[in-house]
Amino acid sequence: MSWRRKLLVPLAALTLVLSASAAAGAAPAPLPTGPATASATSDFGAPGPYATAVEVGPITTLYYPRDIANSERRHPVIVWGNGTNGIPLVYRDLLLHWAGQGFVVAAANTPQSNLGISMRAGIDMLTHRNADPGSIFHDRVDLEHIGASGHSQGGAAAIVVGADPRIDTILPIQPGPLANINAVHVPALLLAGEKDSIVFPFLVKAFYNAADHIPALYGELRGADHFTVVGDPGPFAAPTTAWFRAQLMGDETARAQFFGPGCGICTDTTTWSDVRRNSLALSIPAATTP
């Protein structure tokens, strides 16, 4: 073997080693962040495709797809605020419903959520868990798509948190009055109950009327009182799920429930006693253009 060949053999071996090392260190292809499956029907109140799990922490309770560590996609986040003196357990059925649809729900444990501090802490915690290689949430949380929701005092907190630049949409349910929607920078669906005698519908309409700087919708659920959402969420399950699937997952079927000339909630007078959309919401088409 000539000296050239003697030199080329180890060089070739070294090249193979370096190539393998480079491949091993290359960044993996990004995981998808859209819905796991496209909506087949508009029955967003039906159970989702994911088995669910719950983790109770000192500040936040997490509701999430049970097999998230093995998921082939990243899952959007919903942060939740409780009503006055409430805890996540009170809203367990709704929060598990969202988790079954593929969301990671970070519910603040505090019974006094109005300032939104614990809701923001939930985002911070998930950011840390997503970056931790030892966590089941590692690289499985879609931190680019985060919604805020809550009931009563927690609904007001969702409006407060809507000023956070990490939030992409808000869905306050019968929100209390201690919030300023002028600071919100993202689309809003504001829900009221026709028979609510604690947070009267006109109080929720006041938020809607003030939200002329963002796409805003007002929906009043026929026959619902202030506690209809507690326990079995009943009529609140489907529209809240559809809104978050549209806003955080890009689900076109869900989007058509709120936008375009034939929006689903606009024509469903059985479920809704009043539906309103401001000019910015009216300008949004029912489907995104490719």
What does this structure look like?
It holds the Pfam family PETase. Keywords: Signal. Helices cover 31% and strands 20% of the residues. With 290 residues, it is of the alpha/beta class. The chain has one domain (49-282): 3-Layer(aba) Sandwich (Rossmann fold). It has a nine-stranded mixed sheet, sandwiched between helices. It starts with a helix and ends in an 8-residue tail after the last helix. Mean pLDDT is 89; it is low at 1-27.
Overall body shape? globular
Counting helices, strands and paired strands, the structural category is alpha/beta
Task: Give the tally of structural domains.
Answer: 1
Distance, first to last CA:
61 Å
Number of strands: 9
Tell me what the CATH architecture is: 3-Layer(aba) Sandwich
Could you list the spans in which at least 5 consecutive residues all have pLDDT below 50? 1-27
Strand order of the largest sheet: 1-2-4-3-5-6-7-8-9
Alpha plus pi helix count:
9
Main sheet overview = 9 strands, mixed
Question: Main traits of this protein?
Answer:
single chain, 290 residues, Rossmann fold, TAT_signal, PET_hydrolase/cutinase-like, signal, Acetylxylan esterase
Fold blueprint:
Layout: H1 3-25, E1 52-56, E2 60-65, E3 75-81, H2 92-100, E4 104-108, H3 117-131, E5 141-151, H4 153-161, E6 169-173, E7 188-193, H5 201-210, E8 216-221, H6 237-249, H7 252-255, H8 264-267, E9 272-277, H9 279-282
